[in-house]
Amino acid sequence: MIEFERRDYQSPGYYIRAASKRFEAEGAAGLRHRVFVEEQRIFRDHDRDGIDLIATHLVALSTYAHEADQVVGTVRIHEEAPRLWWGSRLAVDSDFRAVGRLGAELIRLAVCTANARGCDRFLAHVQMQNVTLFRRLRWRPLEEVTIHGTPHMKMEADLGHYPPCADPVTGWYHRPRTREPRT
């Protein structure tokens, strides 16, 4: 019998950063279309609106050989009024939702980026199935609302939990924890 040396498996990592390249912006738009138009059917033809023109778009990028490979998550942020920021269109590719913390990392970058830009209040309309995640990330519910025919919770981030991120284009590299193999 041949014995193989047991090696530690390194799961792939993900870049969490502001979209700065064309393929990142196009990948984010394509992902939003797949999630909000095709999968959830919230929008009929597209989910684009005027906010896209003024928003900062953030992405989670899978890696191949440590190089950015594809957009697997996205969210956008914008300043609605002085010091009042909103996050919207949070989406994670269905093939990557089981990957640890991609949505949470995008939320963290969103609030940290706004915090570095002078945010005093950060809000989001959160789909009801995601309220528990946001509560764990130190957001508080404000009121139930219906947006595009879908129930949402208006929520506010605890800014004290999100230190400023002055360089969202660099962002960070996220490597999800792997489970120890059973022996």
In short:
With 183 residues, the protein is an alpha+beta fold. Helices cover 23% and strands 36% of the residues.
Structural class given helices, strands, pairing?
alpha+beta
H/E element order: EHHEEEHEHEEE
Strand order of the largest sheet: 6-7-5-4-3-2-1-8
Number of domains: 1
Principal-axes geometry comes out as globular
Judging by the overall fold, what is the CATH architecture? 3-Layer(aba) Sandwich
Helix and strand topology:
Layout lengths: L13 E5 L3 H18 L11 H4 L1 E9 L2 E15 L2 E9 L9 H15 L4 E7 L3 H6 L2 E9 L2 E8 L14 E3 L9
Parallel strand pairs: 4-5
Antiparallel strand pairs: 1-2, 1-8, 2-3, 3-4, 5-7, 6-7
Describe the structure.
- The chain has a single domain, classed as Aminopeptidase, CATH 3.40.630.
- The chain has four helices and eight strands.
- The mean pLDDT is 91.
- It is 23% helix and 36% strand.
- The protein has 183 residues and is an alpha+beta fold.
- The relative contact order is 0.19.
- Strands 6-7-5-4-3-2-1-8 form an eight-stranded mixed sheet.
- Strand 4, helix 3 and strand 5 form a beta-alpha-beta unit.
- The longest helix has 18 residues.
What descriptive keywords fit this protein?
Aminopeptidase; eight-stranded mixed sheet; single chain; globular; 183 residues; alpha+beta
